[in-house]
Amino acid sequence: MINFLDYDFSNKRVLIRVDFNVPQDKSTFEITDDKRIRAALPTLKHILNKGGSLILMSHLGRPKNGPEDKFSLKHIIPHIEKLVGKEVLFANDCIGSEAQQKSTALKSGEILLLENVRFYNEETTGDMNFANELASLGDCFVNDAFGAAHRAHASTTQIASFFPDDKMMGFLMAAEIESAEKIIKETVRPFTAIVGGAKVSDKVLIVENLLKIADHIIIGGGMSYTFFKALGGEIGDSLCENERLGTCKEIVERAEKMGVKIHLPIDSKIANKFASDAQTRNQKSAAIPEGWMGLDIGNETIKSFTKVLLNSKTILWNGPMGVFEMDAFEHGTKSIAEAVAEATKNGAYSLIGGGDSAAAVQKFGFASQVSYVSTGGGALLEYFEGKELPGISAIVN
Ligand code: AMP
What we know:
binds adenosine monophosphate; Rossmann fold; six-stranded parallel β-sheet; alpha/beta; 17 strands; 397 residues
């Protein structure tokens, strides 16, 4: 594989796939969280400092059928310009004559942003001709879009085949892979995985794969109640996926056989409605009365989960412990973030991934106190499900 640091970028037009799929204010289009753009800056700056010019490719949102103004990347130009400190040129179509002319005219140090690649269905179908048209704009290809690495799309995967000797990963992609590999390939034990969030069905594959590598699996959030019901508990009106009861039972039984300790919340903060002004009280998680629902982990649980985390040397966290977006139900997630930060201070390696847990550690001010906060949601999840990520394979192979 070509080393990004060794590559000679001088006077090269560098076609770079970034993940600028950022959240925006619906009416002003202002970016509400620019973490993904900031995370790509070291790669962009390195190429510019080495005398290359940049052709930025990204998707934004999920346009269904061709161009839609609300998904146009033109709205984020001022923000990129502010972060890079340079003018950013724009091509209104990611392929075709305008993109060709503007990329051909690029001089060393200049930046061209292409319009949303997902305005073409050929992007998501991984169309080779479309990939070829994109490839014709540049002299080499850099993939720094970890957040899109689990998609076999034209601009993340097929495009790489047109640059057999000039394709490489940027700093962000390399850092993401390094942090994930540290967990899987250099596991220092005990290894504790924390899995939370709303739905069991979204997390079944990761939990099943973690059974093979983790010593402890902490299960919190809405998904834990399906486990309690599967084990014969009463969960009132808490979130439950009845069609997953069998899966949960099986996971618990397999964990026991494999010597993996599963930790479920002993107690919950329950509420009489899904609202921040609900009546609340503390209750055993397996004995929640009708008309009440578990919306956060309770204090006894926080204590026991914290104990496990402080004894861990490797920690992976995907999914919040409760409805952390509401002040009344943020305490559990915040306390677990604090425990992960404490464990990290004591020498553990901690990786936080998945949109919501990353947002939570950010919200509670612990992002700089953990080892790594991933920019990838689905991509990181698929990595830990044991799947091959096509965007990475296309560069490596
Ligand atoms: P996910 O995207 O699956 O990681 O789920 C994240 C979402 O799960 C967040 O929006 C949380 O508010 C929600 N969540 C976490 N715990 C609960 C719970 N006990 N009941 C309902 N929703 C929850």
